[in-house]
Each structure stands twice: as C-alpha cells, then as structure tokens.
Design brief:
The complex is a heterodimer of chains A (546) and B (259).
Chain A lengths: L3 H17 L12 E4 L2 E6 L10 E7 L5 E7 L3 E9 L2 E8 L2 H4 L2 E14 L7 E15 L2 E6 L2 E3 L4 E8 L8 E4 L2 E2 L2 E6 L2 E6 L5 E8 L8 E2 L2 E5 L7 E3 L8 E7 L4 E6 L5 E8 L7 E2 L3 E4 L3 E6 L6 E5 L3 E4 L19 E8 L4 E8 L4 E8 L4 E10 L2 E4 L5 E5 L10 E6 L4 E8 L8 E2 L5 E4 L3 E4 L4 E4 L4 E6 L5 E6 L4 E6 L11 E7 L9 E4 L5 E5 L4 E5 L5
Parallel strand pairs in A: 2-8, 9-17, 10-18
Antiparallel strand pairs in A: 1-3, 3-6, 4-7, 5-6, 7-8, 9-11, 11-15, 12-13, 12-16, 14-15, 16-18, 19-46, 20-21, 21-22, 22-23, 22-24, 25-26, 26-27, 28-29, 29-30, 30-31, 32-33, 33-34, 34-35, 36-37, 37-38, 38-39, 40-41, 41-42, 42-43, 44-45, 45-46
Chain B lengths: L1 H9 L16 E13 L4 E15 L3 E15 L1 H4 L10 E17 L3 E15 L5 E2 L6 E15 L2 E12 L4 E14 L2 E8 L6 E8 L8 E10 L5 E12 L5 H7 L2
Antiparallel strand pairs in B: 1-2, 1-13, 2-3, 3-4, 4-5, 5-7, 7-8, 8-9, 9-10, 10-11, 11-12, 12-13
The chains are: A mainly beta (546), B mainly beta (259).
Chain lengths: 546, 259
C-alpha cells in the first residue's frame, strides 16, 4: 500500500465531492407512465351471458421510456393488448368469459410499466414508473328453478332453490314475490333451502337478496301457489283399455291427471279436473295423443314441459295440448336396449334409465333441461327403476331381477352434487316401484322395506303390497294391498327397528277396481291417491288422520 | 466535480510504475453478473449477464478490446398486482439481449488511457401482446453507442471520464457523461465510485472488486450498488465475477496494463 494516509484523505474528498451532488428528489416525468381511467368495471347478467365488450384505457408515457410492459393479474382479466400512437398507447383489456369465472365479484389489476435504459450503453433495462388499472367484474347470480314449483295455498312448506352465485354474492335472504321467506339457508353456491310462508293462490317470482350486488338479478324461478283441491272418490275410464299402465303424473298447477299407457302402441291421456277453491270438482273427458312405444312421463322442473320417453327417443310434450315436440335420440343406444324410466332432479337433469331383454347393466342417459342436450351418463345399471323425492333432491334406483344370484346394490343420485352412489342396501327389484316422500326422508323398496333417508331400515310393509306411496311429510305410507283389495295406511313416523310398521285406521275400499299392474301416485298436498291399472283409474282421498 | 478534474491534471507527474506496453499481452476474460434493479412504486427487474472480453496489444502504445455479452432480464410485477395466482395471469415478462463493442485505445501505464469505442446491441422482449418497444413498435430494440473514454492513473487512484452517445432504433440520441474514480487500497482490491447523467438524472454508484491472491490472481469478484436520484428512485445492487485466462497479475496491474 502506498501513502495510505494521503490516499485516504483524497478519497474522502472525492467521495464528498460526488455525494454533494446527490440532491434531486424531483419527479421525473420523462420516465413516468400515467393511465386514464385508472379503474374500470365489467358486468355480466349470468355465467351463461356473453362476454362483456373489452374496455380501452389510454396510457401516456414519458419521453425516455423505451419499452412498455403490460402485465396483469386477477380472474377478471383474460388478456391485454395495446396499440401505440406516439407517446400514448391504447390498451385494450379483455374480460374473462363469464362461464370461465362463474358468478361472483372478481377483481384484476393491469400494471403498465415504462422501462428505461439501465446504463449508458443501454445493454439492459430498468423500470421507470408504473401506472395501474383496477378492474372489477361482476357476474350476477341467477335463480334458475324452485322445486317443487307448485305449492298449496295457505300452507307453509320447504322448497329447494337452484341457481348460481348464491355464496359468491353472499345471498342473505329469499323472497317469494315481495314476501320474505320464513327461513332460508344457503347450502352451496348453487343451492338454497327455503321455507315459504302460507301464501294465497298466485304466481310468485323467487328472488334473492344480495346486498353487495349491483343491478337486477335474473330469476327464472316462479312458485305457483294453487288453492287446495278436493277430489271425490271415483273412477276414470280409459278411452281404450290398455294392457298396462306405464306411469301417471298429477299436474298440480293445472289440475289435470296425465297417464301413460300402452294402448294403441302408446297413448298419453290427459284428464282435466275442474274445481273452484275448496270445492269438489269434476273430471272432464280425456284428451289423448299417440306416442309410439311410450314408456314413461314426468314434468319438467317448472312444469312447462311434459317429458315423455319412448323406447328409443325422448319427446318434449306441451303438457296441456299434448302436442309433441322434436324427439331426441339417445346417442349410442344399443339396438337391444330401450329407454325405460325418467325422473327429474333439481339440478335440471332428467335421469333416464334403460333396459334390455337380458339381465345386464345398460347405460343411463341424462337430459339437461337447460341445454336440451341428451347425453349418455357414466353410470350403468341393470334395468333400473327410479323414484325421486318431490323436491328433486335425491333419486333412488333399484335394479336387477329376481333371477339374479346376488343382490345388486341400490343406487342413489344426489342432485346437489350431481353424483351417483351406492346405498348400503342391496336387493333385487320386483314389480313394485320404489317410492320416496317429498324430501327424501323415507324410502320404500320392493313394496316391503321402508328406510330412512340414510338407508337405515325402519320397518316393513305387508308382502301383499302392490303399490306404495308416502305422504309428503314421510310420516305415513299408503299401500294398495292385494289381500285387502284396498288402501292401507301405515305409520312411518318412527323407527320400528325393522319390524312390521303399525297400521293406522281401517282399510279404505276403492271406488272401483283398478285392474292389474297398478301404478299409484299421491297429490302434492297428500290429500288424494291416484291408482291406475289396466281396467280403470281410481281416485281415492286419503284418510283425514294425523 | 472540479476537484476531481483537478486531481486528474495533477497525476501527469507521477511515474511510480515503469513504462511498459499499452497491453502487456493478449488476455481474455469471462465474466458474469447478477443484479436486482428496483424502482420505487414500480416493477423490479432481475438481470443476469455473461460476457467475454478479449484485449490485444497493437504495438507498444495501443491496444484493442472486443467484448460480447448476453443479458437476460425478468420484470417482476407480482407485488404491484397484489397476487399473481390467477390462471392466465401475466405477472412478469422477460427481456434478452446481446451486445458487442470494440474499443481502440492508447495507454501509458504510468499515465492513463484514452479510448474510443463503438458498440451495438439487440434486445427482444417476451411480454405478451400488450407490451411493446416504443420506437420500433414491436418486441425488438436495436441500440448503437459510441464512447470516448479518458482515464488517468495516479498512485493508487485512477480517474475516468467518458462521453457516451447511445441511439435507440429510430428514437432519440441519448447523450451522457460518466465520471469515475477508483482507489486501490490493496493491489488486489479496487473501490470505484462513479456517476453519470443519463436522462439528465444523477446516477451514482459504488463498486468493490476484489481479486484474492489465494485464487491465483485469476478470479475477481465484485459487488456494486447504484442509485438514481429523483422520482421514481431507481436502485441496483449487483454481484459479479470475472475469470482471467492466462494472466495471473494483481488487480491494479491488470487494470493498468492488461484490460
């Protein structure tokens, strides 16, 4: 080291000289970036809506900015483009598609950074100023349906509301028209369980309260409240006697009975019923439509369509005029297979089971009521027969036949998750269709075994049962009994530990003999049974007991 | 600053080192560096650079130097964007560039050095459809620069001044001046302070370079920091290394007789 002391002195002086020039602190517009507007917003009416139009912001940058870097983050933004014009840039911000983000409120940020030379040779860059654009994107919730979509005037009851965005938009309440629900629980982003108050007859649009939401919320769900109807015991004749009855649906909203039979190769009958409020009405003559190879019928989630299945097609039908729509062919249906039964769940999926001449598993199909697409599902069952709760929450499917050497599992379909599963119960189905109550708290299989909603067997029904239904609250089972030739009533309100369920009241003789192959349904309010056999249709009020 | 220039004038009388050639022998250096460039309320950029330099004698009094480098930079905006987890997000973008320059200089190891140089570079970006180099309106930037350097040696000090003209594609010329002073408290250690007026902003830097003897006087390591005044404030911290092929001499000798 040479002359270290002197060198240090000189170095100190030099550093001091340099550092005294370190003033500054002024804003340097030549490396800055500004943008206007600094905040933008997008909105879409639903996840199915078209993508909102892009928004353009204008960035202005200083004279020394060499490069403009535009980065972005957040689900609201799909991409960013820019067009330069002198020292400004038109920056186009493309929002994400509503379908890709779903319902909710989403944010994003665009950062526009002006890069300048990092050194005098400009061999690399350093960031100058950055301007940011805040992006907010609202994809509105949608109320798609309510199930059941019909309620009885003067009676409070529970319903399930399906849609999207219920959690994302912090839904805090439900209204039926302008009347608030007695209670509501947001089960998931797509499901609300609500209790409507006793309402007068009329149509009530189902609305949700989402305080943070800007603008109107689309609702496609309407609760139709109808006055209770009193039916007199009686019979209805067929225009042409069928060999068998496929199924029945009581159209509560329009007070009509719809019956699917095999008469003339497949006949759909509609029996309108005319009654004033709280009056016993009269049945009108049946109208009919020929649907070849008719197998089963059900109403859509809002009652706007009657879905009929023939052996090789699904046919949407206008439920009053019975005018058929365009048939839909199930894709890849094997030649020896046929569509068998149909039920509608509250996820807007109509489950269609299939059968074949042999005892083997065949594909299930699903008809999406929102998209009108009929597709093959991943599940396959052996000639399965379904039953579904009136609120569409759960279906149970029994399968197989008595010739099988082992019992196949009973399958379930949970609408909340749109998923199939196996119950803890296995059995071979017989000729008695399964039954469930309104909210899937009671399940009857093979006309004999009665289970709770989680498949805990609570008791048994007589082996002479030909058909069974539950009262909507699940506390009573009504059977059509071959030995009694009448309707029997059983208490299913409590668990009887797998023993015979207690009978209540006397056997109720029918106004007529329905014939063989009896199908039985119950009205939505639980007041009336409808039985259809190959001889005639029998209307039978239920016992007025607790 | 006046004091700095006065100091340069004084050193002419010093002749501590024996007079030798401008470049004792041809020598080559492989170097690399990494730096973190931060700007207040703006993005940060991480830069990696590798370069190769060769210096050749041209007679007794002249030398020539050729250098080529590759630079890779990543602009990070995660903090600005408050996240960076969304699918489809672009939270960073990148630059890569190549550059080369050639210099011709005259040097007396006891006095100093005067050099002229020309360099060119090319940079490209991968920053998506929203990003552009402004002059070319695309994702590429070409640069040219000319330099005149003067350096004076006095005892354990060196004083340097440079005039640089840099041209960005079709854009404006950037004229800047750079001043620097180096001190060798040890023959293997250099402390350099510098300043420039690029963009008419004041940029100051300090760099330590050490070439430890136990590594055979062949490997040097450096640590540097620069800061630019004004708003937004820009700061860079960097580390680097340089491996010198075939010339095992102390750092001070290398700077004055080889580089």
């Amino acid at each position: 080291m040479h002359d270290f002391f002197g060198a240090r002195q000189l170095c100190g002086v030099l550093l001091a000289c340099l550092l005294t020039a370190c003033g500054g602190g002024d804003d340097d517009d030549t490396v800055s970036v500004s943008v206007t507007p600094g905040a933008i917003s997008f909105s879409a009416a639903s996840p199915e809506a078209t993508t909102p139009a892009p928004r353009i912001v204008t960035a202005t940058f200083g004279a020394n900015v060499a490069q403009l870097s535009v980065t972005h983050d957040g689900p609201a933004i799909a991409g960013v483009r820019s067009i330069l014009d002198g020292r400004t840039a038109q920056i186009t911000i493309d929002p994400s598609t509503p379908a890709s983000v779903g319902a909710g409120v989403f944010t994003g940020t665009v950062a526009i950074t002006g890069q300048v030379c990092a050194n005098v040779n400009c061999s690399s860059l350093i960031a100058g100023g950055t301007a940011k654009v805040s992006v907010q994107y609202q994809v509105s919730p949608v109320v798609r349906l309510v199930m059941p979509y019909v309620a009885t005037a003067g009676k409070s009851d529970t319903v399930i509301i399906r849609g999207v965005g219920f959690r994302a938009h912090n839904v805090s309440g439900v209204k039926f028209g302008a009347i608030a629900a007695l209670s509501s629980t947001v089960v998931s982003d797509t499901e609300i369980q609500a209790t409507h108050p006793a309402l007068t007859a009329g149509r009530y649009e189902v609305q949700i309260d989402a305080s943070g939401h800007q603008g109107p919320i689309t609702s496609m769900a309407t609760l139709a409240v109808v006055d209770p109807v009193t039916f007199a015991a009686g019979t209805l004749a067929y225009p042409t006697a069928p060999a068998s009855v496929k199924n029945m649906v009581y159209d509560t909203e329009r007070d009509a009975l719809l019956v699917a039979t095999d008469a003339a190769g497949g006949t759909l009958l509609r029996y309108p019923h005319q009654a004033g409020p709280n009056q016993t009405g009269l049945w009108e003559a049946a109208s009919s439509a020929t649907i070849g190879q008719l197998q089963d019928i059900t109403l859509s989630t809002n009652g706007a369509q009657l879905l009929a299945i023939a052996k090789t097609a699904l046919i949407p039908i206008e439920p009053v005029t019975l005018v058929p729509g365009t048939p839909l062919k199930p894709p890849a249906l094997a030649t020896d297979n046929f569509l068998k039964n149909i039920v509608v769940a509250h996820d807007s999926l109509a489950l269609i089971t299939t059968g074949s001449g042999a005892s083997k598993a065949t594909s299930l199909y699903g008809y999406n009521l929102r998209t009108a697409a009929l597709t093959e599902l991943s599940a396959s069952l052996n000639n399965a027969t379904p039953a579904i709760a009136a609120n569409g929450s759960r279906a149970v499917l029994v399968q197989g036949d008595p010739k099988l050497t082992s019992d196949p599992a009973v399958s379930t379909y949970v609408a909340a998750t749109s998923a199939f599963g196996n119950a803890t119960v296995s059995l071979k189905q017989n000729a008695v269709a399964p039954a469930m109550d309104r909210t899937a708290t009671r399940i009857a299989l093979n006309g004999v075994k009665v289970y709770s909603g989680d498949f805990d067997q609570i008791g048994t029904l007589p082996a002479t049962t030909l058909a069974v239904v539950f009262r909507p609250d699940g506390k009573r089972a009504y059977t059509y009994d071959s030995a009694a030739g009448a309707i029997l009533t059983f208490d299913t309100s409590t668990d009887r530990n797998d023993t015979a369920l207690p009978r209540l009241g006397p056997a109720v003789a029918l106004a007529g003999h329905p014939g063989t192959g009896v199908k039985m349904i119950i009205s939505l309010d639980g007041s009336t049974l409808f039985l259809a056999g190959n001889a005639q249709i029998v209307v039978q009020p239920t016992l007025s007991e607790p | 600053m006046q004091l700095l220039l006065a100091s340069v004038a004084l050193l002419a009388g010093d002749s501590v080192l024996a007079q030798t050639r401008a470049v004792e022998q041809a020598n080559y250096t492989l170097g690399g560096s990494a730096s973190d460039n931060r700007t207040t309320n703006s993005a940060s950029i991480d830069t990696m650079r590798i370069h190769l330099r060769g210096t050749l004698p041209v007679g007794d009094y002249f030398g020539a130097a050729v250098q080529a480098g590759y630079t890779d930079s990543t602009v990070r905006t995660r903090k600005l964007l408050n996240g960076g987890t969304s699918t489809g997000s672009r939270i960073s973008c990148g630059f890569d560039g190549t550059d080369a320059d050639v210099a011709l200089f005259a040097r007396r190891p006891t006095l100093g050095r005067i050099a002229v140089s020309y360099g060119a570079g090319r940079m490209s970006s991968d920053c998506g459809p929203g990003s552009r180099f402004l002059e070319g309106r695309n994702d590429k930037l070409r640069t040219d620069h000319y330099r005149i350097d003067a350096e004076a040696y006095w005892r354990d000090f060196s004083f340097a001044a440079a005039l640089i003209t840099t041209k960005l594609d079709n854009g404006p010329k950037l004229e800047s001046t750079e001043l620097g002073a180096s001190w060798y408290p040890l023959d293997s250690l250099r402390v350099r302070v510098s300043g420039n007026d690029l963009y008419d902003r004041k940029t100051y830097g300090i760099e330590l370079e050490h070439q430890p003897e136990f590594l055979g006087d062949s490997l040097g390591m450096s640590l540097g920091y620069t800061s630019t005044d004004g708003e937004p404030r820009m700061r860079t911290i960097g580390i680097g290394f340089a491996y010198h092929f075939g010339t095992q001499v102390p750092l001070k000798i290398r700077d004055r007789q080889y580089r």
